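Predict the 3D structure for this chain.
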Amino acid sequence: MYKTTTKSTNNILLTAMMIVLVAFTSNLKAQLNGTKTIGVDYPTLAAAVTDINALGVNGSLVINIPAGYTETAPSGGYILTATGTSANTITFQKSGSGANPLLTAYTGTATPASAFQDGVFRLVGSDYVTINGIDIVDLNTVNPATMEFGYALYKASANDGCQNNTIKNCVITLNRLNNATSSAPMVEGSVGVIMMNATSTTATVALTPTVATGSNSNNKFYSNTIQNCNYGIALIGFADVTPFALVDTGNDIGGASSATGNTIINYGGGASTNPAAAIRTLAQYNINVSFNTINNNNGSGVNHATTLRGIYLNTATSANAAITNNTVTLNGGGTTSLASAIDNASGSTAASNTVAISNNVITNCTYSTATTAVFNGIINSGTAAAVLINNNLFNNINLAGTGTCVLLETGSPVTTTANSNTITAITRTGASGSFRLIKTSSPTNFTANNNVIDGVSWTNLTSTGSVDCFYSFSSAANFTANNNTIKNISVPTTGTVNGIREFGSSTGIKTIQGNQIYNFSTTAGGAGGATFNGI
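Done. Predicted structure below.
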């Protein structure tokens, strides 16, 4: 018998084939790759982000944004939830010569304590994304309309962080007026670039990852200019315990040369009691902060009236860190608050980790409004197995007030060095107070060789201020101070200068030799009576 095919059967077969074809075509469309251009392939950047989120990528995808292009961010900002891979990267970049594309903030409604923050562009669990040469500006002038961030890296979940992303060559301008109190893990006020141990919708709730993919790791922040915010860059991670398998690791602020360093200027200065910093981190491991230029007020900013820092690495147990080749200028505007150029609290003797704070320049710093305020240059309070504070320059620093100020503090690691540092053109005023230029607390082994201290003056003629060029209070240290030059130190009439002051325990080996210590004097115009001790 011959089988008869009816019209109805044909229709069924045709319909089935069409369904298969549509499904096949949809499956092909579900992946993006190649180069797309805003204004050609997509009418707006917002449309491109929506399409990428919906379809994903199956090859390297480049979104070109023409030079000079402008767009106002949609409410809630651009939210990228799609992810790339090492083979299938996603890049948003400026195309052509001329001004960087500019994304203007929408009118916000949130505050730093809100669960969903206002911000212009956020990555949510995205990997292998590069943003290159895309500027951001917040033109809002009142809170809560202002943005909490320019760029943000959030986790999609506790076990899906942002990894291997790069933000570079961007100019990010926010509003320092946004400096209100936050709820942890969010920091206080506006942040140029923030990376959070939180989701985008619950920014005030810290997460607990259970696998390494839950970390925000190996992200790079290069050659950006960040200004007019409360914090420049803030990286807030998960404080794991040994064996530290779930931590943020390998993040890089500034790279390996001046070509990749960031410029963070005119930050802080908002009218609140909250702190400000150019770079702030929490629980970051194997981090690099190098070649950055930092100035909280270059003439276009406002001196911050409360706690002010340049670089602040906080609480990362068993962590290596490199803080090198940065230039930091601070202008304090407070009376009793701390100002610190570089403040490291990371590192632990639990593992053989190293913290290197070297080749930095602390320059042109002022704190003329201080009363009892403290200014610190480079302060280490972490207890890494080895802390190396070498080849740093401190110059042209002018400080008021009676606080105990320290230019270089090694803390109490197992082994610490403070070698080949230069301290020059330093002035203090104030009715009293102590000035400690190179200080160590209780390391097991301390070495301070080949340093130069030349030109420190306490100018208040009636002050009782004192200067300790080297100040060691080592309870059980092997102390070495060789081949240092200490000269041209002046104090008021009743002041005191100690070249090298070592008054710890008698245990250990104390080696002090080959030092040149000379030309201590009373500040010009004062009568005699000052006390001078070489060693």
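The two ends are 118 Å apart (CA to CA).
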